Amino acid sequence: MKILQRTPELLVLADSGADPRMVGVFCLVIGTVFIFVGWSNAHALSFVVIGAIAALGGIALLLLPGRVTAAFDRTRRTLVITRRSLFRAPAQEEVDFSKIADVVAEPGGMQDRTATWRVTILLKDGARLPLTSIYTSSLAHREAAAAAREFLGLPSPPEPVDALPVRAISAAAQRTSPVMLGCMTVFLMVFVAVGGRLVFVEWHRLNAARPMPATVLSTTVESIRGSKGGYTYRPVVTFRYEMNGHVYLGTHVTPISESRSGQWAYNLVARYPVGSTVTAWVDPLDPGDAYLLHEWSFLPLIFVAFPGLVLIFVWGAAISERRRHRSAAAAVAPRAQAT
User: Fold this and answer.
1) Are 210 and 290 in contact (CB under 8 A)?
2) How far apart are CA 202 and CA 194, in angstroms?
3) d(Cα 140, Cα 320) in Å, to the nearest integer?
4) Which of 103, 109, 147, 316 is most buried, by CB atoms within 10 Å?
5) CA distance 223 to 233
6) What pLDDT, on a 0 to 100 scale, did the predictor assign at position 310?
7) β-sheet with 286-291: strand ranges across
8) pLDDT for residue 51 is more than 60
9) What pLDDT is attached to residue 161?
10) Which helix (H) or strand (E) holds 325?
11) What are the residue ranges spanned by the domains of the chain?
12) Are 45 and 55 in contact (CB under 8 A)?
């Protein structure tokens, strides 16, 4: 909830639902990756289920949060709350200033010592009107509540953060350990580097290879046992081709070695009947390096995209946390010096 407009006669607070939508995008990406991995590998139904749950949750967070505006009109002495969402018509609620007892940044608890809030209107009859259903750690909620209280001429109660000394808030900004952040960055960058290398190798082979006629000699599917007991399957097609007067044998179907589900492997092998003439793609600089399927694979891209998105999310959260604590420290400093 942020201050959208502030004049002597009008104060407008607004929340666009951007925070839950960012989480929704993250959940949707993770869910899609899990579904793809589970669908591409045998005995990985759990990955598909987990991915589907994460993806559905992400879609819900993308679609369900609506836009909320709260307009405090001093001329009419009325608060107008407007709620808009994708699946419902805009709804308005009017509250007379005389019925408002307070406007507070309602705390939602502490997670890893990071408080969360939402702006709530307290009425004199004891009723509560939360402007949003979701708590977030943005200090904008507290600033919006303070602005509304000042606009209504209500006394400002002491806020929990004000009781903290400046040094405690400054120390809070360091709770995201640089060592932990660095280790996580290195860990994710390893995956990015592996994925980047695979992308480069695949790009090189797709661009360097030249088509050559080849004859299929035999086909089979290899089963590969995973570390957790499951199996993946790799298509193997033995084919013969000639280049520069020399005869070569190849076994690779894809530009890079891949193993996925049994259905994928057997369907791929079925495209190359024994005895048929097919097109082999050969590297002129390395005639012994050849493959049959001249197509991009998405697996190397996942190794780059997934950890890359996680890395962006982690660093964005860390930077946002530092900024929040710096803002809190700046707000507390004048009071601490005065005392």
Assistant:
1) no
2) 12
3) 12
4) 103
5) 5
6) 76
7) 246-250, 231-243, 210-225, 277-283, 286-291
8) yes
9) 43
10) helix 299-338
11) 2-166, 210-293
12) no
